[in-house]
Each structure stands twice: as structure tokens, then as C-alpha cells.
Design a protein that fits this description.
It is a single chain. The protein is an alpha+beta fold and about 350 residues long. It contains eleven helices and nine strands. Helix 1 packs parallel to helix 4, helix 2 packs antiparallel against helix 4 and helix 5 crosses helix 10. Bound molecules: 2-{3-[(4-chloropyridin-2-yl)amino]phenoxy}-N-methylacetamide. 2-{3-[(4-chloropyridin-2-yl)amino]phenoxy}-N-methylacetamide (2NL) binds next to helix 7, strand 5, strand 8 and strand 9. 2-{3-[(4-chloropyridin-2-yl)amino]phenoxy}-N-methylacetamide binds next to helix 7, strand 5, strand 8 and strand 9.
């Protein structure tokens, strides 16, 4: 064979220019980036199309023979990079399809904002309860809670309610069918009785909670509602202490210009007993629908703890005296927030509840 002939014959046509290769890889990358795998089947199809034995990456590798020798190194690097890119996308899709988000996937935008977690809001009854309770806490009253299912003694007997008091009637109280001694408490006084029975004096406490009465449900009354009661027992506690404590409460709650009056009243568990009114904070005492044109709104009942109640709890009434009071939460909450139907409190309707997001 003649020595002068070229080493290969016929001469190789280097048909794949670098320009074409770069352009081709760019187009393929764009196609891969635009591809979204809906499910595992689509991921597998992606693998076969791009990474399979007859896939595009293999085919591109085959193109190497058409690249001029002086460009082979650069082309090899480009193709290798492209292969890694396609493999990376495939791995990310596989993980995503398996329900595991890939944090290594190059296509994931980690700067995107997270999912919004909707914030709840406090219930208007909770807002009003906290408001009342925190005023008494500042005077040194300690918060305590107790059971909503109670026995007859802690709800009625210890509170000096005679055997045939109308409040004990089935008409007014929910009894537990399996045990006639058990009932749903009708006030939070059961908590005070339990505190007094512990025998640790003095006692200065505030007792919020849910109570139950067998009432027909309407816009104005419900079969369950909320109360705050208070109790202060020590040596030498007088009616003057009761008045000053409640004056302070009213000024903090309704403002310093509000007037206060006490009316004599009757409760079996206090003697003497009174009801406390404040000058109407809606009309300022002029007379409106809320105060029924009287200029006064009743806000709580109170009195000196009956000596029988103290002895019932093992406290010596000759040494100790005390005062107690009780108020509802629903009515002041309705007046403050402009709520005209008591049933709204218990319906758990988000359209109602979310209106209190920024209320205090
Ligand atoms: C009202 C009136 C009141 C009490 C509750 C009480 C508790 C014990 C002893 C004595 Cl353990 N008294 N509580 C006293 C007077 C009135 O509530 O109108 N509540 C909504």
C-alpha cells in the first residue's frame, strides 16, 4: 500500500459542528425543563425517552464520532454535563412522584413563599372572660376551675338551698339519668365550695366557667352560658370590702365616670344580698332600649357569705366572714361586641368567629 495515502480513506466528513451541538443541547434542556411529570408513569416515559438504551442521551453520545478531533474534548464535556442534567431531573421527578419533595432538585425554587396557615381568633366569650378575670387577678384573686358535672351537695346542698328550692327542680336543672345525685352545675359556686372544703384560709379567688340551665333556647337565653364568680374569706371581711372591690372592678371595666348603685336582693347563699347596677354605658343614663329607659343596667349579684355555707364547708362563721359575687359573661359580651343573638356564641360558625380576629 502506498505510503503517501492518508491514514483513513475515504476522508471523514465531520458533520456535527460545535455550533450545532451547543444549539441542540440548549433546545433539549428547554424541553426537559418544560416537562412536568403528572405521575410515576410519566416519569418512566421520561426515562425511556431521554435516558433509555435507545434514548436521546445515548443517541447524542453516538454523535461524538461526527465531531472533529480538535473539538472532541469540549463536546465530550458538554454531552456529559447534559447527561447529568437529564439524570438529575429524572431523580427529582422520581422523588416527587413518590411523595418526597426533592430539596436537591435544581429546578426547585426555594425562594417561593410557604403555604399560608390561617390564624384563628379568640372566642368573644373568652375575650370578655379574660377581661373580667384579669381585673380581679390584679387585686390578688387566684383563678380556679372545677367540674361541670357535679353532685347535689356541691351545687345545691352546701349552698344553703333548701330541699324543695325551685332551682333544684327538674324544670330548671339537667340531671344525669344514671345517677339522680349528679347534675350539670347551674353556677360555678361548686368550685368555691370545693376550695372552702380544702380548709386552707384565707381564700381570695375568681372562678370562671360554663354552667347549664334547662331553658328554652332563644335569641336571649340559652341552656348553657358562662359565669364568673368571686369569693373572699378571711377574718374581718366586711360589706365595705365587698363594695370597694366591686367599685374598683366597675371603674376598670366600664370607665371612671360610670355610676354604681346597690339594690337589696335575696340569695339563699348570702346574707345580706344585693344586686349591683351601673349607669347605662350605652346611653349614659339618658334612657334607652338596653336599660329599658331606666338609665341603669344590672351587672352582678353579691352578698356576705351565709354563715350556714361557711359551716357546711367546715369554716367557723364566728371567726371568719366573707363576700361573694357572681356575674354572667354573655350579656356584657353581647353589649360590647354588638351581638344580638346569644345562639351565635355556640354555633362555631367561622363567619361569626373570624370577626373577632383583632378584637380585645
Ligand atoms: C348572679 C349572682 C351570686 C354568689 C353568686 C356565692 C358562692 C358561694 C357562697 C356565696 Cl360558695 N355566694 N356566690 C353570691 C351572690 C350572688 O351570683 O346574679 N350570678 C349571675
Amino acid at each position: 500500500m502506498a505510503q503517501w495515502l492518508p491514514r483513513s480513506y475515504p476522508p471523514v466528513a465531520y458533520i456535527c459542528s460545535m455550533e450545532n451541538l451547543v444549539k441542540k443541547i440548549e433546545d433539549y434542556k428547554a424541553a426537559i425543563n418544560g416537562f412536568e411529570a403528572a405521575d410515576a408513569k410519566a416519569v418512566e416515559e421520561f426515562r425511556i425517552k431521554w435516558l433509555g438504551t435507545k434514548g436521546i442521551v445515548k443517541e447524542m453520545m453516538g454523535e461524538m464520532k461526527n465531531v472533529a478531533p480538535e473539538h472532541k474534548k469540549q463536546a465530550g464535556q458538554l454531552l456529559n454535563e447534559f447527561k447529568l442534567f437529564a439524570e438529575g431531573r429524572f431523580e427529582a421527578m422520581k422523588e416527587a412522584a413518590a411523595g418526597q419533595p426533592s430539596i436537591t432538585g435544581q429546578q426547585r425554587d426555594l425562594s417561593l413563599p410557604g403555604d399560608v396557615i390561617p390564624l384563628g381568633s379568640r372566642h368573644p366569650i373568652t375575650l370578655m372572660r379574660n377581661r373580667i378575670v384579669s381585673i380581679f387577678q390584679r387585686l390578688g384573686f387566684a383563678v380556679a376551675e372545677g367540674p361541670e358535672i357535679e353532685d347535689d351537695w356541691h351545687n345545691f346542698g352546701a349552698l344553703n338551698l333548701p330541699e324543695h328550692h325551685p332551682a333544684r327542680d327538674m324544670q330548671d336543672t339537667f340531671y344525669v339519668q344514671q345517677n339522680p345525685d349528679w347534675l350539670l352545675r347551674t353556677h360555678t359556686s361548686n368550685v368555691q365550695i370545693r376550695e372552702m372544703e380544702k380548709g386552707k384560709l384565707p381564700i381570695r379567688g375568681i372562678y370562671p366557667g360554663r354552667v347549664y340551665r334547662n331553658e328554652t333556647v332563644s335569641a336571649r337565653s340559652h341552656c348553657y352560658f358562662h359565669q364568673v364568680e368571686g369569693l373572699y374569706i378571711d377574718e374581718n371581711v366586711s360589706f365595705a370590702d365587698l363594695k370597694q372591690t366591686l367599685y374598683f372592678f366597675v371603674k376598670e371595666m366600664y370607665g371612671k365616670d360610670v355610676k354604681v348603685r346597690f339594690r337589696p336582693s335575696y340569695f339563699p347563699f348570702t346574707e345580706p344580698s344585693a344586686e349591683m347596677d351601673v349607669s347605662c354605658f350605652i346611653c349614659g343614663g339618658e334612657g334607652c332600649n338596653i336599660c329599658k329607659k331606666t338609665g341603669w343596667v344590672e351587672i352582678l349579684g353579691c352578698g356576705m357569705v351565709h354563715p350556714n355555707v361557711l359551716s357546711n364547708c367546715g369554716i367557723d362563721p364566728n371567726r371568719y366572714t366573707g363576700f361573694a359575687f357572681g356575674m354572667g359573661i354573655e350579656r356584657p359580651a353581647m353589649l360590647k361586641y354588638g351581638i344580638n343573638d346569644i345562639r351565635l356564641f355556640g354555633e362555631n360558625d367561622v363567619r361569626f368567629l373570624k370577626q373577632f380576629t383583632s378584637a380585645i
